[in-house]
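ARCHIVE CARD
SHELF: 3
SLOT: left
DATA:
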Amino acid sequence: MGVVLLLSPREAGTPVHNFYFFTLTSFVVMNNLTLRIMRSWDEASNGPEYARNLLIANLPTDSLPDYTRELSIRVYSELYQLLGTDVWQKPNGRKMPRKISFRLPSNRDWSGACCHLFLYFNGRPRWYASCSLPGDYGEWEKIVLEPLADHPDELFFVEHLCHQSWWYQLEQGRFPATTIHDLIAKLRLRTTNPTLWPHLFVAGDEAQADLFAANVLATYLSGNTPPACCRFALNDLLSGELNWWVTKDYLADMKVLIVQVDPIRPNKQGENILTFLTDWFKAPGTPTCIFHGSSDSLDRLKRWADDISELIEEKTTFDIPATRDTPDEPHIPLPDVVGYLDFRLHKKEGEAQKTSEANQKLESLIGLDRLKTDLHEASLLARFTQARKRLGIDTDSDNRYHMIFYGNPGTGKTTVARLVGEIYHDMGLLSSGHTVEVCRSGLVGEYIGHTESRMKEILEQARGGVLFIDEAYTLVSHNRESNDFGKEVIHALLPVLSEPNPDMIVILAGYEEKMQTLLRSNPGLKERFPLKFYFDDYSADELYEIALRLLHKRKFVLTCEAGLRLKKVIAQATAQRDENFGNGRWVHNLVEQGIVKSMARRIMTRPGHDCSDRALLCTIEPVDIDEAEERISIAPAPNIPQPIHIGFRA
């Protein structure tokens, strides 16, 4: 091993062109590392209740230096969304073990053609691998980690983008992996030399281009400061509907302008205004402009405005493919992140019917009779208080509607939390009604001070909607020897919970007994949650109905005998349930991981099977139910060495 000078970036938030002004630090040259990974069964491995999948990673330590204090691993999906993370910390006074094991439980699916794996050394990202996750459970695969310095786009991602509060919207907008990687690469190059990238262009599906321009590019370029952004329609200027000379003075104070480009309507007045506009765009100190519209609209703009066409290059243009809506994944509407220049967004026609739609969704849920009654009464009380305020009768009451959801896993708490956002938005008590869903791993930071900054970002995301914290009792640790950063989350929540008009509803969810422990951990916590709701376990009949809905949604059909067999399996499982029984989640696994897989194996291994036989591919036989029951009940339980943790888990 030799000694080299490590190139170390300055503090996060510094423009990347400063990356090349180096801090000189000695560091030992290390070769590629080899990591072994394996998919495991979370139920059999005592994973957290929120976990849907578990990844085990083993790292030999023979190539690591003696001064190794901490190693952490972070795995992102193909769409660069965090799947799981874990940290190992060397105990004081002890030698390095021969092997370090990481456990990465996740509430997301470990799926996709590839994932992005980062290994941190003493708090800094050092190694990277783009790899496919193991397809089968219980099988080890070797992954070769390369120095992260050899992958500048990925280095830029982990140091500048992955913790941005807007990054999660890329998944909500359902942008493909190619678009996200193009975004990372172009933002890195633009940040390195912004003078070569004065303005940006977003072409493609109009709705997706609008979302990408306003909620992604503008948010990043403005430093996540919506008041510094403004958007307007180019045709409004060219037609004279907006006065250019008045508008110019207003725009000068902005950081970012989002310009909607519709099909240009050429006229003499528009030509003159466009000349003034393009001259202004090229002037030093002009706000960054993001033009967005259909590919046809931008092509017409290029043909009509030569000066602007010079700016439209491959390196400055993002091509956004259309996203086809499905019943399971409807298009995410564009939140009002940046304002329009000359008008406020008004309620669209038919929005008054949303209240009934949200309540209809609630009523259509299977079971949960007590919850539905209690939530309906809470809504009536909120409307009653609101009406008294409007008449000036009761002006001292606040608008705090924070809630606690008591219930076992799989009883619909997350689904109802999303409906709470819709219902309270329709009542005018939340400005947007969206839901931000997190668990401990999404709140607790990896080092001292990180939790505070992460909480600040998440609270900003949740403003106007619902912040739903599942398994919230995990924020309280009884291990006094560990650095319990979970308490920092609670301290960060208290100021928001105390605001009289927070424009946010915080919902904590988990087992009743464990949630009571959480509330007792801080004297001021309990009184800040005026609404408490109980989610009862599903009965066997309700779970059977849930299974039928899942199968019907996938266009599967049960034979009479298979239906009776399924009902018997569910009745047996509910009769033996304990506090860890997954309710609706268990039924979902029975259907997806059991029945459907068993059916696929039966049909596809059958000699001379006909893949064009619709009835064959849709009909579930009793043998599929029997094999599914056996498959679910004999999940393997690998013997996993436990790493030393610092108080948090993904």
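SLOT: right
DATA:
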Amino acid sequence: MTLKSVRQELANPRTSLLLCLLGIAGGVSAALLIILFRKSVEWLQLLYLDNVNEFSTLEADARFLLPVVAAVLIVLFAYLTGFKHYRLGIPFVIHQLKQQYGHIPFRTTLHQFFGGMFALASGFVVGREGPSVHLGAAGSSLIGHGLKLPYNSIRILSGCGIAAGISASFNTPFAAVIFVMEVVLREYRIHIFIPVMLAAVCGSLLTRAFFGQVHELSFLGFPEMSLWHYPIFILFGMILGAIATLFNSQLMNIMKLFQPIKMVWRLLIAALITATVGYFLPQSLGAGLDVTGTYISNESIWLLIAILVAKFGLAIVAIGFGVPGGVIGPVFVIGMLCGAILAAPLGFIIVDSVDMTNNYALLGIAGLMTAVLHAPLSALSSVMELSNSQEVILPAMLVIVSAYVTSTQVFKNNSIFIRQLDHQQLAYTNSPVRSELQKTGVLAVMDKDFKLFIDSAEKYILEFLATSPTVPVVQRNSFEENINYSLVQFELSMSDESSTLATQKMKAVESRQTLAEVYEILQAKRDGAVYIYDTSPSTIVGVITWNNLRNYLHKEQY
């Protein structure tokens, strides 16, 4: 099979063996990049910490210097890569998927790798899923750009990379697939679902090979709970919905308030605030799930409250000021702490044979993630896989529903990603027509059986149209400085002064483009055609008329 036939097949929006193989390749590429990123963070931390994410083992003076040094390194690296490329994380990836078919600029990828590495290794309260999504999309889509595949397939490749990145980061393949469909792509199509699923499997298998069969919150467990807890789950979810609204609102307030300040000073201010709080309260640094799990099991309720307040504030400062990293990691640890704290008074109300702190910590993750991101299915699958427990499903569903309804209906809270995109003025929406047309490459619809006339006299074209009126006729004019192509048809005007033939100049469309670009060109006049070229605009390989495009849009689908 030639590369040309591969591109032709991938232009079609359908499940194929080629697309599945492409998903596997993209998943492996993205997963290896994420594993390298995780290993780099761990290597840095173990240079000065006894264990990964245990910042309490570090001397107070060193804890103060660590975020400051990291901020200086992030700034220096931003100067090297260019501050105009300082677009990072999940919101930026969503924008690129919607507007640029998942193309991730190399410089932003480079900055996300090293900036995220410095931020995570130094104790900023940010998550590793932000870099994982960004790096995963970049690592996977790079294959598509290298092979010059159609843009509709590169969009799917980017989704595969995101799924593999999340799966490799947390060993949660099912949650990774749901996250891509629910949060990033916001659609469920079988021809997308299958390669994304394969990529997530690759990410999980590779991370198990390097890090072992680890479920980060399996140590919490989820013992059976009495039915008396179930009414409380609804109240618990409502509280989490309110906390999520407060988190989103304060984060956006910080972003808006400090937007006029240069990025350099924002990063340094975030570092100083993180360093000061970490100096007095080392447990407030980082967003490690395993370390937070030990806190909720061993610390007093008052210390847990102090850690919660500190992490809540430091997460808002770090993310709001632009420190490279994700929001989901902090949401996980804040949700765990909220659950553990809110579970403490229940011991005086409901008498259980076992401690319910761990149960409520898991439910806190599910409820807060749902209300912050507006991703209920992702939240449910995440806690199920992170805890390696199916018993969490039913209680989590109650907490998730009440948290989501409270957040959206009572407090009118929107997804933090959508609010960030609006604040950064990054487009993330498409019309239904454009969204549908983006799924199909021009190679799948173009008419290759056209008739080309080169500087021919009108009588020869008339003779051909008389015998083959349905075949597109293209005339190439090479007398001008630049070669151009025109669509030639019978003139339908009834005027005696009209010419027998009507000529419409055609615009060129690259063979990697989708029908959305064709629609943008032709929709104003609802007539005419475009010609498709492969390597050079002077060489035509196919034609798409307005009638072709209209017939495609009206084609019945199951």
